[in-house]
Amino acid sequence: MIELQKDWSEIVIGMQRQVKWLMDDVVSRKPPMVRFSPRTWEPAIDVYETDKDVVVLVELAGIKEDEVEVIVHNNILIIRGERKDIKQGIKRTYSQMEILWGPFERDITLPASVNVERIKAFYQHGFLEVILPKLNEEKTHHVDIKVE
Q: Does the residue 20 lie in any domain?
């Protein structure tokens, strides 16, 4: 009976060693370099203000300007389109994959009210710059009090 307990404890200790070795092996491995892109992705943006404008700069490398849609609705700027895979149909095996392909959309809440009639957009070297003139609203409004 004592020999059975000794054998059982050796089995448990051996299993513990194997589990430790397995966990050490898993933890020491590098994360996978291939990530699958979501159905839609969001391009990187910068949003800043000047005295007169709200400016949004959008990184859109590999996308033609006529494939980008710019919409302003309820103080939200919407940028959408699609980056098409330039090497479609070619069999390939990736060792690293970071460029996202497919449809994209980015909704940006604007930090100030803008004049939608005067918005301008420029596209150069894969960057879309949207200049949204601020509305000239007075920040302070004095109310006259009438005495009755």
A: yes
